[in-house]
Amino acid sequence: MKGHDTALVDVSDEVLAKSKLAITKSLGRIQEKFSQDPKYGYLEGAEVFMSSALKRLTLTTDMKAFVESADIVIESIVENIDAKKKLFAEVDKVAAPKCIFASNTSSLPIAEIASATNRKDRFGGLHFFNPVPVMRLLEDTPGFIVNRLLMPYLGEAVRMLERGDATAKEIDQAMEMGTGYPMGPFKLADYIGLDIVKLILDGWHKRFPENRIFQPITVLDKLVSTGKLGRKTGEGFYKY
Ligand code: 3HC
After folding, report:
1. Domain-by-domain residue ranges, the chain?
2. Ligand 1, atom 35: closest residue by C-alpha
3. Does 168 contact ligand 1 (Cβ within 6 A)?
């Protein structure tokens, strides 16, 4: 969208096909907006925007071919420190010395991930927020301000539900109407993905076992273990 040639690399062609659909759909929403805006030349400008954005994007399973010539590599795989370190160690072998590495991790320490590479001076955090084409924050602050506050908040909402204090719908309504949040905690957790929320909380629990706020939550664990991960699987706290 911003004019950079970009390659999206995954290990699965099936995932890439799904990604292409999601990206095309998202670009379509932006094209629709531009098609009504004189600034973008109405429909013609909107079509040029969409087709040139798609032309700059390659979807591939061949990591090596693209990493060799990349200026920046942004990793966005599963929230598991060993998996991230293993991937970066591989990428480090093929990337050019000038190439900058970044992790989109939501919660893991950047210095520890970077320790798997020989470019600690060219390694950073680059954390996007959902939905990425719309949210304006890109956080690379040490400490991950948003998730450090957001995850305990989502966890406390689930504990409130678990205690039977209120339903998910009531809690969402209260936070939307009372604090002006665009989505209440259950809608947002379903949107982020319950597996992601659990991985983040579990990771912190492992590092700070005495902190009550990161303790496992039965309702959340049950939903994740039964494959109810939120919007992406058609069911989480709500059905879609
Ligand atoms: N692609 C492109 N455009 C999109 C889009 C997408 N995926 N999703 C929404 N939009 C656009 C719409 O076209 C619309 O544009 P317009 O206002 O110019 O017409 C605009 O965004 C608003 O969308 P909607 O009218 O459909 O709906 P809402 O007004 O409810 O907004 C929302 C949707 C932006 C998702 C809003 O509900 C919101 O801000 N929710 C909270 C999101 C949030 O808290 N994100 C952070 C999650 S934490 C995280 O990601 C970190 C991770 O590490 C866990």
Report:
1. 1-60, 62-128, 145-233
2. 131
3. no
Q: Which amino acid is at 159?
A: R
- 118 in active site: no
Say what the alpha-carbon torsion angle 89, 94, 97, 98 is, to the nearest 10 degrees.
Answer: -100
Measured in angstroms, how far is the CA atom of residue 132 from the centroid of ligand 1? Answer: 8
Atom of ligand 1 nearest to the CA of 191: 47
Determine which residue's CA is closest to atom 22 belonging to ligand 1: 134
205 is catalytic: no
4 part of the active site? no
Query: Mind listing the pLDDT tens digit of every residue in the chain (240 residues)?
Result: 889 999 999 999 999 999 999 999 999 998 888 888 887 777 778 888 889 999 999 999 999 999 999 999 999 999 999 999 999 999 999 999 999 999 999 989 999 999 999 999 999 999 999 998 888 898 887 778 999 999 999 999 999 999 999 999 999 999 999 999 999 999 999 999 999 999 999 999 999 999 999 999 999 999 999 999 999 999 999 999
**Phi, psi (deg, nearest 5) at residue 128:** -90, 160
Ligand 1 centroid from CA 108, angstroms:
25
Predicted TM-score (pTM) of the model is 0.87
Architecture of domain 62-128: 3-Layer(aba) Sandwich (3.40)
210 is catalytic: no
130 lines ligand 1 (CB under 6 A): yes
Under CATH, what is the fold of the domain 145-233? N-(1-d-carboxylethyl)-l-norvaline Dehydrogenase; domain 2 (1.10.1040)
